[in-house]
């Protein structure tokens, strides 16, 4: 429960969706003016095995042969569903969240075996269909569990806010796609409403809020020492480091995101069983073996000296040469440990990087997320960090709802008010040509003539607005001066500025054409280019005053509009404004953020 009464003027419904690669959950809060908010978790879904015992369902969708949604969640795993799917030619969407990851990133050193999306469906459509399913289930849950649930839903029909959780590695383009999915789901009517009513929080930050508000914070956190949140999920592992106390926290290291979650353990297991059984009659049992591995041994495995037994068939299934006896396959402990090894090595390396790069000493680690249930992962991390004096813990209390509940707490309390920039951010600018500068000499082919001054000018100069690794408060404004030239008589309307992110190794990036198109490794992910378009700021310059300037080179009068662009980088989303002076008074107007995304 939040510590502060809701101060809004009218009742509001607050929804938080934690859509994971393998499992998903929903939390909600009915906000009544003057009352303390009470957070609830949806614990009942159609065909769920034990109603009320689990707050997460499989992230799974079935479509029929006409590309129409058939079922999702627990219903998608019923034996009857498999039969209908086989007979009707249905298509299954699983692990579809991984298709939403930034296209410039892909797992390094690992064959990507993410299942394809169903025919004629893109990831935004599937995401939206599954989000609609969760939304419908939530409304039914509210109707069934609240007195006058129908009336409550009717009263908040036009006053609903949504928080969507996201991995650390997702940025503006992924947020834009998820907003489109919220429209497809029918939660909001259009993208304009989505801009107002849909917000985002990283899964690591949501987990931090849950730990703080649920009384799970340890002594190190209470003392203001550094704490690392390792959110190990199905697809990715997010690492976020914080320091603070008294409900005010700040990031103390650049957050990381790695594609080494539990599905990669499963994929390595599948590869092993395909190789082992590929030339035998048991190859048709691989899916069942992997499914049984996921259900039990993947979580309970804890000793690489003992064999793991996976039951998959009948007592008549025997093949000693393949370690199969009475319908059970025996897998040596070191082989099972090998399924985990790349993921564990990645997490250990990343966690140590966080500890080393932080200005504040990190003394504790919280291991959360679905992959945190692995005893082997927990054991190996303890072996690494106990000798360093870093205390590792994994909260047992309500882990299934940590992220969705934490997203509600984020919306209500905003405990994190300082974040660390992941990249350099800047713009493609220009500089007067200097014939004695070697860098300038190498770029004579980029020289243009300034239409007002007539000076020779070089473009492709990267001007940094925000440095990588810099702590940024939510209120911190970054201001950059610009001007726009128009032919006199033409009215200035829309103008755009591209905000670039630099993802290379240089501590002083200067030229955008440096090493263009070369692959390079950064935090165990591969990027194709160092400079990428982080966002485009679209501005309406109609209200701005201008000045007449004679262009000697063009032999005509031009119109120059001067303005500043104010950018807020410290929020969970990029925000921008246009600022100008008029009659000695500063004026501002919001600017629109546009991302290059795929999808409908």
Automatic annotation (TrEMBL):
It comes from the Eukaryota. InterPro entries: ATPase_NBD (IPR043129). PANTHER family: ALPHA KINASE/ELONGATION FACTOR 2 KINASE, HEAT SHOCK 70 KDA PROTEIN 12A. This is Actin-like ATPase domain-containing protein.
């Amino acid at each position: 429960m939040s510590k502060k009464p809701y101060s809004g003027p009218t009742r509001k419904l607050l929804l938080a969706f934690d859509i994971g690669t393998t499992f998903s959950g929903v939390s909600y809060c009915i906000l009544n003016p003057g009352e303390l908010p009470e957070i609830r978790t949806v614990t009942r879904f159609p065909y769920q095995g034990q109603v009320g015992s689990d707050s997460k369902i499989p992230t799974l969708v079935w479509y029929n042969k006409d590309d129409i949604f058939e079922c999702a969640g627990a219903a998608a795993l019923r034996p009857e569903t498999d039969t209908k799917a086989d007979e009707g030619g249905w298509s299954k969407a699983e692990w579809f969240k991984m298709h939403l990851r930034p296209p410039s990133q892909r797992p390094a050193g690992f064959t990507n075996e993410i299942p394809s999306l169903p025919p004629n469906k893109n990831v935004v459509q599937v995401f939206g269909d599954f989000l609609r399913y969760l939304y419908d289930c939530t409304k039914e849950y509210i109707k069934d569990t609240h007195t006058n649930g129908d009336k409550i839903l009717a009263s908040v029909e036009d006053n609903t806010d949504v928080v969507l959780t996201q991995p650390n590695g997702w940025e503006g383009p992924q947020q834009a796609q998820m907003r489109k999915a919220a429209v497809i789901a029918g939660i909001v009517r259009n993208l304009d409403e989505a801009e107002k009513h849909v917000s985002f929080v990283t899964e690591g930050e949501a987990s931090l809020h849950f730990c703080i508000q649920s009384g799970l914070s340890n002594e190190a956190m209470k003392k203001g020492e550094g704490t690392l949140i390792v959110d190990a999920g199905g697809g990715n592992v997010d690492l976020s480091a914080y320091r603070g106390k008294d409900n005010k926290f700040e990031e103390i290291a650049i957050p990381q995101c790695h594609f080494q979650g539990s599905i990669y353990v499963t994929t390595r297991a599948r590869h092993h069983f395909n190789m082992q059984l590929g030339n035998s009659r048991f190859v048709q049992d691989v899916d069942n073996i992997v499914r049984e591995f996921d259900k039990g041994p993947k979580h309970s495995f804890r000793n690489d000296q003992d064999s793991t037994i996976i039951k998959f068939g009948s007592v008549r299934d025997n093949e000693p040469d393949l370690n199969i006896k009475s319908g059970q396959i025996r897998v040596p402990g070191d082989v099972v440990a090998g399924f985990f090894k790349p993921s564990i090595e990645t997490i250990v390396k990343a966690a140590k990087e966080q500890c080393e790069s932080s200005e504040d000493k990190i003394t504790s680690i919280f291991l959360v997320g679905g992959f945190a249930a692995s005893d082997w992962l927990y054991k190996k991390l303890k072996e690494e960090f106990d000798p360093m004096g870093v205390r590792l813990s994994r909260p047992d209390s309500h882990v299934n709802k940590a992220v969705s509940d934490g997203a509600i707490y984020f919306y209500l309390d905003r405990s994190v008010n300082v974040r660390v920039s992941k990249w350099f951010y800047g713009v493609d600018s220009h500089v007067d040509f200097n014939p004695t500068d070697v860098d300038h000499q190498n770029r004579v082919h980029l020289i243009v003539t300034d239409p007002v001054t007539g000076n020779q000018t070089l473009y492709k100069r990267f001007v940094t607005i925000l440095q990588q690794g810099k702590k940024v408060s939510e209120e911190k404004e970054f201001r950059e001066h610009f001007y726009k030239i128009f032919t006199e008589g033409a009215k200035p309307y829309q103008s755009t500025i591209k905000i670039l992110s630099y993802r290379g190794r240089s501590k002083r990036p200067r030229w955008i054409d440096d090493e263009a198109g070369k692959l390079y490794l950064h935090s165990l992910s591969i990027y194709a280019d160092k400079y990428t378009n982080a966002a485009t700021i679209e501005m309406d310059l109609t209200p701005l005053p201008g000045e007449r300037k004679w262009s000697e080179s063009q032999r005509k009068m031009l119109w120059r509009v001067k303005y500043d662009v104010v950018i807020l980088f410290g929020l969970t989303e990029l925000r921008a404004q246009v600022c100008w002076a008029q009659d000695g008074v500063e004026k501002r107007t919001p600017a629109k953020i546009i991302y290059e995304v795929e999808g409908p």
